[in-house]
Automatic annotation (TrEMBL):
Protein's organism: Halobellus rubicundus
Alphabetized SUPFAM superfamilies for the sequence: Metallo-hydrolase/oxidoreductase (SSF56281)
Protein name: MBL fold metallo-hydrolase
Length: 228
């Protein structure tokens, strides 16, 4: 399987609930890049870290009109500009995220805290220069949704054997406990893989608590995949 991209005639839907949906545009890729559409309190659809796919607009239309495209990670430019341009909306970036705007061929709007009037709140997951990593998380308290674009994931290269949710391999020695510990979500959505929709809060706590303990299994799993 390719790490990223490949042949596809359609996306694979993941994480559907009343106020949102996710999809993986290239179901056979190993990176399992996941994208999401979240419905805000104002009824608008916010598309987060999108990878474009055939007939994607039909899926988004099921939930309403797209009012913005948001980036959750400085490396997740993906197809944000293309989707934003097609829907005639800006790409939203947190005010503190740098080095991204000039690489986006679309209007950019900066924000602090909440995404517009959506009720979707944002928080800083990580902002570091070594390694370069600027990540913002999204939480919709009324909806019970937590979206973490990169620090945690369910794709196989994130997880040690037996884990439902794993910490990114680079962050396992110092997991982002301070940023993520205070959340009690009904669902955890991620940027790589399908989300966790049952026992989500407990699963997130376990991932943070066991990150270092499970390092040997996680790194062994990743090495086996690289050599296979």
């Amino acid at each position: 399987m390719p790490m990223k991209g490949g042949d596809t005639d359609g996306y694979r839907e993941i994480d559907r609930w009343d106020r949102g949906v996710g999809w993986i545009a290239y179901p056979d890729e190993e990176m399992q890049r996941a994208s999401h559409a979240l419905v805000g309190d104002d009824g608008g659809v916010w598309v987060v870290d999108p990878v474009d796919a055939p007939d994607l607009d039909d899926l988004l239309a099921e939930f309403g009109d797209v009012v913005g495209v948001a980036l959750g990670l400085d490396r997740h430019k993906r197809d944000a500009a293309a989707v934003a341009t097609r829907h005639e909306v800006p790409v939203y970036l947190p005010r503190w995220m740098s080095g991204v705007e000039r690489e986006l061929d679309a209007p950019v709007k900066r924000y602090d805290g909440e995404l517009g009037d959506s009720g979707i709140e944002t928080f800083k997951v990580r902002d570091s220069s070594l390694p370069r990593w600027q990540e913002v998380g999204f939480v919709h308290p009324e909806d019970g949704t937590l979206l973490v674009p990169e620090a945690v994931g369910t794709a196989s290269f994130f997880c040690a054997p037996g884990e439902r949710l794993g910490i990114h391999p680079v962050l396992r020695p110092l997991p982002p406990r301070r940023a993520l510990r205070g959340h009690d979500p009904e669902r955890v959505l991620v940027g790589h893989g399908a989300g966790v929709t049952t026992d989500a809060a407990a699963t997130l706590r376990e991932a943070l608590d066991d990150a270092r303990r499970n390092m040997p299994g996680a790194y062994g799993q990743m090495l086996r995949e690289l050599l296979s």
